[in-house]
Amino acid sequence: MSEVLVLIDHVDGAVRKPTYELLTIAKRLGEPSAVFIGPAARAGGADGVTEKVKQYGAEKVYVVDDAQIKGYLVAPKAEVLQQIAAQALGNGGLAAILIPSSAEGKEIGARLAIKIESGLITDAVDVTADGVATQSVFAGNFTLTGKVTKGTPIITVKPNSAAPEESAGAGAVVEFAATISDAAKKAQIVASQPRQATGRPELTEAAIVVSGGRGTGGNFEPVEALADALGAAVGASRAAVDSGWMPHSFQVGQTGKTVSPQLYVANGISGAIQHRAGMQTSKTIVAVNKDEEAPIFELVDFGVVGDLHTVLPAATEQIVKRKG
Amino acid sequence: MNIVVCVKYVPDATADRQFESDNTVDRVGVDGLLSELDEYAVEQALQLKEKAGEGTETVVTALTIGPEKAVDAVRKALQMGADKAVHVSDEAIAGSDYVATSLVLAKAIEKIAADSGSPDVVMCGMASTDASGGVVPAMLAERLGLPQVTLASVVETQGDQVRVKRDGDTATEVIGGTMPLVLSVTDQSGEARYPSFKGIMAAKKKPLETWSLGDLGVDAGQVGLAAAWTTVEDTTARPPRTAGEIVKDEDGSGATALTEFLASKKFI
Ligand SMILES: Cc1cc2nc3c(=O)[nH]c(=O)nc-3n(C[C@H](O)[C@H](O)[C@H](O)COP(=O)(O)OP(=O)(O)OC[C@H]3O[C@@H](n4cnc5c(N)ncnc54)[C@H](O)[C@@H]3O)c2cc1C
Ligand SMILES: Cc1cc2nc3c(=O)[nH]c(=O)nc-3n(C[C@H](O)[C@H](O)[C@H](O)COP(=O)(O)OP(=O)(O)OC[C@H]3O[C@@H](n4cnc5c(N)ncnc54)[C@H](O)[C@@H]3O)c2cc1C
């Protein structure tokens, strides 16, 4: 069976959940080969990357030590994938290359597409066994299905596109020595500040997201308290971010994160098209807004017309009580 | 200094965007405009020019690929303050995918370079507001053999040195590079200016060229829907969400109703 390359999403060797989703999708298309570009020391061991991806079906794990390349943006990783793809093609064939649909992942896919003369599909929310990818487009108003018709399909896949399925893979380690050109080392990562842990679920992975907008007036306490009562992640509209109330990493929408949780609670958010673009595909949508004409109410399964500063604390209290 | 700023003409996001029967975007039936996210790119290009000062001659060229109406996108850029504009328009380009779009852009940039000097900065938006791929700048860097310094929320320059802040997925990074390079900027990079009356009048006299694929030496068979390396099989409008229950909060009734709803859906 042909290999399917899956670029592992990780922070310093800590594997992130989208990796398991991609491996699960890869199994539909062929034989999953995980690609780890990171500190080689984190590949082995009981707690290492190889052990983790094996449990989700990785038959092979290409390990590429990133000591020489981690200081540069995007381009070196595209070269690594190009070289691994060439080797896989020479072995038993290559069915597809799956990359997490992060900002970096999409740019890696972009450069790779030009290098290996292959079509690129971005932001897939599903991929079938015959390589048909689904995209959610125009602010979630349309669903589009498509396929790569040239070369090796390169598909970037959004978080939550598959429920990770455990299955034992061989996890055969292939230490891969990539050759990186000087040209790929021209955009330097001069400094890097890891995002601070919030103690709450990751926004793009959370089952529940509670968001606040301009209507919070800058006081996010009621939003955060409700989020904590529900075990949810906190999100924000661009208006709240532009006002400096929340960091940009909390922004939901076209130029922020796309979320698709089981439950999305929008508080003091009017429901502009660009905000909808980031949350419209949520399973259940709830809004609290004092304006009954707010467009967000067109989307909701349940809405409360009222002041979030009174509704949220009262609801939070009741929820905490019920949870006992 | 030479700056080329790539701007896309897109259907208005607040209008009723549709697909054609061949699954391409309806770019004619819906009002279009310069992608709002590319206004930030024009703004940063103009700020680079202003920073370079009067002494150095800096030329900002706005470049767009698109149908006849797409000329509006570069016109707006000229009104904002760009010096020159190029509109690449050719029926054969319709339906191009990322790969073909980046090819035509790269060829146009090479022609601009040959005609009036190599660009020091190829400036792009973070993503278009219609397809929002966010991949064309990286493809351009690959094709032009330039460093990519992309998704900048803050741009700083000193001579030919560029430093930007990039809000990555798991970290905030500072990226550095030396011109020439491809730079893309986000909507956090600073409000874009409005065209002034003077700017609107001045724009009418600025050079605006229209190029075809022939002018770029690109074979029509390399671009467009038929040559795309990806194909769209189907587009479906999402069924409208069924109207939900909306209650008015009176003396705390809203909180209770909300809690009941969440419990009924097993979220509590
Ligand atoms: C290119 C582009 C990209 C964009 N990207 C994004 C994006 O990624 N994400 C995003 O969110 N936006 C984005 N926007 C901005 C978007 O158009 C809206 O401006 C923004 O979403 C508005 O935020 P808001 O709903 O918080 O504020 P507003 O629209 O001002 O709405 C505030 C709401 O709060 C309600 N309210 C006020 N007080 C209370 C109270 N006490 N209790 C309850 N309700 C109250 C009001 O009735 C109102 O409905 C983008 C815009 C552009 C042009
Ligand atoms: C809903 C939808 C989904 C699509 N999905 C895919 C897909 O998965 N794979 C694929 O190959 N194609 C896809 N396409 C086609 C793709 O959108 C076009 O090729 C488009 O011309 C370039 O992509 P973009 O708008 O996403 O650009 P982005 O990569 O988002 O653009 C980033 C920047 O590049 C510059 N730029 C982009 N286009 C132009 C232009 N025409 N003129 C000047 N500057 C420009 C601008 O500075 C812009 O801010 C899709 C199109 C649509 C409408």
Automatic annotation (TrEMBL), chain A:
FAD binds at residues 214, 237-238, 251-255, 268-275, 289. It comes from Nocardioides soli. GO terms for molecular function: electron transfer activity; flavin adenine dinucleotide binding. Binds 1 FAD per dimer. One of its GO terms (biological process) is fatty acid beta-oxidation using acyl-CoA dehydrogenase. It comes from the Bacteria. The electron transfer flavoprotein serves as a specific electron acceptor for other dehydrogenases. It transfers the electrons to the main respiratory chain via ETF-ubiquinone oxidoreductase (ETF dehydrogenase). Residues 4-193 form the Electron transfer flavoprotein alpha/beta-subunit N-terminal domain. This is Electron transfer flavoprotein alpha subunit. InterPro entries: DHS-like_NAD/FAD-binding_dom, ETF_a/b_N, ETF_a/FixB, ETF_alpha_N, ETF_asu_C, ETF_asu_C_CS, Rossmann-like_a/b/a_fold. Heterodimer of an alpha and a beta subunit. Keywords: Electron transport, FAD, Flavoprotein, Transport. Its cofactor is FAD. Belongs to the ETF alpha-subunit/FixB family.
